[in-house]
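User: For my dataset I need records formatted as: sequence, then C-alpha cells, nothing else. Please produce one.
Assistant:
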Amino acid sequence: MVSWDSASFSLVNMSVIERPLAEICEPFKPGSVIFPEKKTFQDHVDLCYQMRGRPTVIRSEDQLDELTEVFFEHFSLCEGN
C-alpha cells in the first residue's frame, strides 16, 4: 500500500487506476474464534467482550456440526490434549 499523499516518487510510463478498497483488501469475516487455553466460563465471556465479540450460542444442529469441525481442526493447539 502506498500513501499517495506522503510518497515521494514520480510515475513514468505508468497509469494510475483507482480501485475500491474491497478489491484490494479482503474485509474481515466475523466468525467463531477458538482460544486454546483453559478458562472459566466467566473468563471466556469477559474475553469475548474484550475482543468486541460475544460468546457463541448454538442455535441449530448445522451450527453445532460446523463448530465441532472447527474445534477438531484446531484440537492439537489446545493445552493438555
